[in-house]
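Our preliminary data section would be incomplete without showing what the modeling component actually yields. Below, a chain of 75 amino acids is followed by its predicted structure, encoded as tokens that our downstream tools consume directly.
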Amino acid sequence: MPKGKDIKRISTFLTQDELEYLDKLSSKAKFTGGFKLSRAEILRSLVKAMKELKVDVSKVKSEDQLKERILKAVK
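Predicted structure:
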């Protein structure tokens, strides 16, 4: 957990597949010479990356639309 930051707890719902994906990312980091990352660390990193990408969320009406905007911002 980041030190010296005002951290807030949130609750969210993810599918089993999404949870397994986060766990696989965590394990891959650990078994390739890095550290095991918590689900929270992975999600915080995704939020930070989105902030840097400055994703245009204007008129977004669904998760799928948001995903497409994120992918577009990455390219």
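The two ends are 30 Å apart (CA to CA). The mean pLDDT is 94. Preliminary results of this kind motivate Aim 1 of the renewal.
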